[in-house]
Amino acid sequence: MLSKPVFCRHRMRVGGTCVIVACLVGSLETIGAELTQDEAVRRALQADPWIQASNLKEQSGLAMSQAAGELPDPRLSLAVANLPVDTFDFGQEPMTQVQVSASQMFPRGDTRALKRRRFEEQAAQQPLMRAERRAQVRKEVSQLWADAWQAQQSLALIAENRVLFQQLGDVATSSYRSAYGMTRQQDIISAELELTRLDDRVAQLQIKYDQSRSELAQWLAAAEPGNSISPLAITLAEAPPELTSVPQAEQTFETFLAHPMIRLNEQKESLARTDADLARQNYEPAWGLSAGYGFRGDDPMGRDRPDFLTVGVTMEVPLFSRSRNDSEVKAAQSEAESVRTERLLQLRQMQGAWATGVSRYQRTLERLDLYRDRLLPQIEESTTAALNGYTRDTGTFTDVVRGRIAELNARLMVIELTADALRIEAQLDYLQAQAHPANTQTLDAEERS
């Protein structure tokens, strides 16, 4: 879908130099309708190649678990033993024989079952890693959308107010030239200065807007090589998502036990304990069975010679490797305890992050209500009074400009506080993520379809 580029252009002349401010509100191409936060998250999850790679790793781990549980292949050998080299006569010597033998080795203890379990546990980490990845993608994309939305709305608001500042400057210039009223040359210079400052704010916001859209475009691009989305093709919805109520501040460790990161850590601990069990198998001997059959020819007199049968058991005794085995078991046990301690630390950090996030979210909503319900109406009333006073020659032009600047800053703060609330809300949503097996399997099935 193609659309014409739409620009907001404002022109002013300062010191003989023409300054043009352009605010891009459209683009040469669009990705469909205006991009909402929920749509951005949905598209990012759908286009994430990491999810597909994780599915393949899970399949690989399950296949490896089947292979790890099998016995090693038996060995067969065929040999001619004790053949005289002077005549190469097979029946000349009684020890000459054709030997056919087979041997089978058996791994130590429960090594096969533990190796199979280890690969299964590695594969079981992938659904949890995908759940954690989905939660991270939702948080990152939601926060990027909030950054881009804040810059977009701020640019549109400044573009709208710049027209008002320019009109005020034109009125002051006309009043000064006609020597009507109390307008001074300093008022004209002040109006031009504020326009220049607005131009600088526009430039800063445009940088932030372009950067946010560029990072957002990387998430929205499809997984196939060569596919990409131009940042200019992203147009955000003007209305932000509705903010939710403040959640409960106090949460216990049990609240976060179903979080994908915590569940993944539990799976890693289980894997570390399996590694410890594998290390203990080195104390067990490896053993094998062998059987051989030796065929002999007739003696020089034509009499039959009996054939030979050989049966044996091979056993590897871990006699000189005990110190090494002790070190390996101790290292595996320490790793398991380290993972368990890390999980406790993560739970503590998540609990602290939740309490901090809820407090910030509550204070942000309170400030947002304060600006909307009290500060902004008061500033608008003060600005209107200053403008009425200026038109009646009872106020100054400086009071009008200051009032307009204060009103603009208040409206920009409302946009900033709304974006801050969206970013904090995304962080809280991440902390509330759950990794129940049924939900994970449902999401995996949707992605495969």
Molecular structure report:
This protein has 449 residues and is an alpha+beta fold. The protein has a single domain (7-448), classed as Outer membrane efflux proteins (OEP). The chain contains 8 helices and 6 strands. The strands form 2 sheets. Strands 3-4-5-6 form a 4-stranded antiparallel β-sheet, with no helix packed on it. Helix 6 (322-391) runs antiparallel to helix 7 (397-431). Residues 1-30 have low confidence and may be disordered.
The total beta strand count reads 6
Structural class: alpha+beta
Q: According to CATH, what is the class?
A: Mainly Alpha
Q: State the CATH superfamily name.
A: Outer membrane efflux proteins (OEP)
Number of domains: 1
Biggest sheet architecture: 4 strands, antiparallel
The low-pLDDT segments are 1-30
**Global mean pLDDT:** 82
State Rg: 39 Å
Key phrases:
alpha+beta, Outer membrane efflux proteins (OEP), four-stranded antiparallel β-sheet, two-stranded antiparallel sheet, 8 helices, 6 strands, 61% helix, 12% strand, disordered N terminus
